[in-house]
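job 3f2a | input accepted
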Amino acid sequence: MNTHTKATALEGLQPELLWRFFSDIAHIPHGSCNESALADYVSTLATADGYACMRDMAGNICLYVPSSPGFEHAPVVVLQGHLDMVCEKNNDLEFDFTTYGLQLVQDNGWIRANGTTLGADNGIGMAAALAVALTPGIVHGPLEILLTVDEERGLKGAMNLDPSCISGRILLNLDSEKTGAVCIGCAGGRRVTVRLPVFFETIPDMHTAVALRIYGLRGGHSGLNIHENRGNALKLLTCLLDAVRDMDIALSSFAGGDKHNAIPREATAILSLPRRDIEDFGLRINSAYAVLVRGCPQEPSMMMSLTDIEPQQQGISGLHFSRMLDVLLALPSGVLAMSRDIPGLVETSCNLASAGIQASELSLDLMPRSSHMLGIDSVTSQIKAIAQLAGGSCCCETPYPAWYPDLQSPVLGCVESVHAGLFGVKPQREVTHAGLECGIIGQKCPGMDMISFGPDITDCHSPSEKVSISSVEKFWLLLRGVLEKIAKQGVSTYN
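job 3f2a | predicted structure (495 res):
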């Protein structure tokens, strides 16, 4: 039976302190740029136990945890994660992420939230770091627990990190989503915004208005899930509009998606057309949608709706409407190149993440990712060219760097040794197409030896996000084991 109250959803789960901290984290609003209450909570925990705590100018927080007795001279280990979560909800749910705590649900061996993202990315990692610091009897050397802000909107906390906050040169990033594996590298990325002027005209009185909506898609993380061919609601809606572009149509609104690192799950267009054409319009839309359904077997819950609404006053039509469709069709989205070095790894991709029309301008957010800066630059140049050819403009944020694998990493050898001792096999080595803060922190702190691992978390950045209960305990055992081995033996023997 499902449960979803703070008192019962996590009751009896082990390790108890980790789950207690995760419950507290889930009930404190902590979306990107709204992390201050959670940072205060972490600071209060630290100071209550007598630990020093520092915040830099960006808002990143670092806790300084003394070693277990007798291990004062062990290497300093940085436990690193991020404070913020992606705030996504089902469209039919009334939920304010700035004030509401999440409703946790225990469901057949998993923890999820009721209709929203769970924030296991990266709440479980945070909770594990705090539990290590505050659980008596755990063997570890000196710890620095670094929790960054605004990771989910482009790793901005790490980009603005004051490197003097941390002295350790061994970093365990606790922001991965798969047990039995260790992450040894990640893609870089950049947020790109296209702005296209749109021209509104007065809609004749005899036109009727409809809302065309695509919804029910799986969505997900635009790095971790991009290779699964999940449907992009904005691209699919554009395909439907392309099927009727030759009709006498005026577009008043085109919107979908709101997170640059999430694949859009739903999108809506507001259209006006002569009443005499409604039947033909409906037939053509239904025919085009049937084609989409056949081409999207991985989206069994996808739905399309066509609803009559109040007449609209203005809309985009004719050549301006066609130009907008051309831009939406031309912009890259999905897997663009596979790695030549690592089988099965996406090397370069792009996600058309969000769209909206305001003040006579269509704004489009995209997220190119690549294991190589050349890939990011190439996709960015393509986006710029499309925007310029259509008379628009393009704004690019500073890219964050990729994290290149170090197969001779001593901490990698240490983690593999502990994993084999606990579970009988070495973990798989993986490079993720998602962005991790390791690349940035490694640039800011030369000589940093890094590894990333975590529990099983699925469907990050969507309301289907969930974390496996049993995998959290394995993650906890591995974390404890690695810290103990580093405290007792260091890492130099694991080259």
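job 3f2a | The radius of gyration is 24 Å.
job 3f2a | closed
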